[in-house]
Design goal:
single chain; about 190 residues; alpha/beta; Nitrilase/N-carbamoyl-D-aminoacid amidohydrolase; three-stranded mixed sheet; 10 strands; about 25% strand
C-alpha cells in the first residue's frame, strides 16, 4: 500500500568522462549536494560510472562491468549510511562469466542493498547496441520498501513499455524512478 508520508527526491544529472573513478567521485559529490538540500531518495544516471558506451560493439568495454554486490555498491552503501539517504544506482553488472546486465541497485539508508532491478527492455538500434552488452532482466518489475517510501525502479528504455510501470505501481510503488543516459545532441 502506498505511503501517506511525503519524501523528497533528488535526481542527479552529470556529464561523465572517460575515467570511472572520476565519475564516481562526481556522483558522490552530487549525492552529498542533493542530501544537503534535503533529498531523501537520490537517483543517479544510468550507467553513471562511464560515458554511455553502447554506441559501439567493443569487447574491451566489458572491463567496465563489476559484480553486485561489489566495489560501487559497497562505497555507495557507506555513503548512504553516512548521509541517511536511499541511493538508486544503475551499474554495468557482471553477474557471471558471459552474463551481464544493466542493473539498478537500490541502496537503503542503512547502507545495504534493498533490492535490484535488471533492465528488462534492452534496445538494439543505431548507437544503442545494448543487446551486445546486456542480457534482459530476470527479476520482474518489483517495488522496494525504503525508509522513506515504496519505490519502483525501471531503467531508461523501459519507459516506452507501460506494462512495466503498471506492474510496478500495482506492487505498491509511491513513485517510479527511471535512471537514464538518454541525452540530447544538437546534431
Amino acid at each position: 500500500m502506498p505511503s501517506a508520508e511525503k519524501f523528497r527526491i533528488g535526481l542527479v544529472q552529470m556529464a561523465c568522462g572517460l575515467d570511472p573513478n572520476e565519475n564516481f567521485a562526481k556522483a558522490e559529490w552530487k549525492v552529498r549536494e542533493a542530501a544537503g538540500k534535503g533529498a531523501q531518495i537520490i537517483c543517479l544516471p544510468e550507467l553513471f560510472r562511464s560515458q554511455y558506451f553502447c554506441r559501439e560493439e567493443n569487447p574491451e568495454l566489458f572491463a567496465l562491468a563489476e559484480p553486485i554486490p561489489g566495489p560501487s555498491t559497497e562505497a555507495l552503501g557507506r555513503l548512504a549510511r553516512e548521509l541517511r539517504v536511499v541511493i538508486v544506482a544503475s551499474l554495468f553488472e557482471k553477474r557471471a562469466p558471459g552474463l551481464y546486465h544493466n542493473t539498478a541497485a537500490i541502496i537503503g539508508s542503512h547502507g545495504n542493498i534493498d533490492g535490484l532491478y535488471r533492465k528488462m527492455h534492452v534496445p538494439d538500434d543505431p548507437l544503442y547496441f545494448e543487446k551486445y552488452y546486456f542480457a534482459p532482466g530476470d527479476l520482474g518489475f518489483p517495488s522496494f520498501d525504503t525508509r522513506f517510501g515504496r519505490v519502483g525502479v525501471l531503467v531508461c528504455w523501459d519507459q516506452w513499455y507501460p506494462e512495466a510501470a503498471r506492474i510496478s505501481t500495482l506492487e505498491g510503488a509511491d513513485v517510479l524512478l527511471y535512471p537514464t543516459a538518454i541525452g540530447w545532441h544538437p546534431s
